[in-house]
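Re: beginner question about structure tokens

> Can someone show what the tokenized structure looks like for a real chain? I only ever see the sequence side.

Sure, here's an example I had lying around. Input first:
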Amino acid sequence: MKTAIVTGGARGIGAAICKRAVRAGYRVGVLDLELAACEALVAELGPGGHQALAANVTHEAEMKAAFDAFRDTPDLVVNNAGIVRFGTLVEQTVADFRAVVEVNLVGTYIGAREAATRMLARGRGGVIINMSSLNAVTPGPGSGAYPSTKAGVAALTELMSLEAGHAGIRVNCVAPGFIDGGMSAPIYANQQIRELRGNAVPLKRLGTVEDIANTVLWLASDEASYITGQQIVVDGGVAHSALLHLPRALS
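And the corresponding structure tokens:
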């Protein structure tokens, strides 16, 4: 049986990835800050030896212990844990900026390094998928350190793909756009914002957590076996839609 660890796995996009991985035949380690939340999702996932793994992604020793507790070297590791602190850069405190860097960038590095170290030692490849964001491509004002960290995740992904590729380890990242779930759920509780953003997307809808989970599991599959070092933007086309909203002539 294939195995996977998903950080930030107890809720939102992470939980959707865990569920999709189970449907694809994986034994899953749900890694998150709160053990109770991990255990609740593991119970929902049903039989299959799935495990609840409590750890703070910014703590190297906790992450090592969680990977050790999983027993198997995972075939797939998804570094999904992330936070945001809203506010303009001049309004942000240095503490807020550092907190986001620690979780989103350093935490992704720790998870990816833990995965790569074990996959290299095992000697039969593996897949690491990091979670970037539309903000890495086109930063949204008022999102503080978030865009910088996600751009850093994309660069980290490229570098690790070069350093681990010789061992058959593929490293990619997924950049969600306007997703109706996870950390963005409070934004889309406002019906006007839902409609405004949904209508701005060329596909005319918000994305779902399942859209992201499906992309992650496709990247992990043999169908994507020659793809590495890439950032896959899953946004319904909104990242390159500026001219759609700025026509050359009035109709």
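Each token stands for a local structural state, so reading them left to right follows the chain. The chain has a mean pLDDT of 96.
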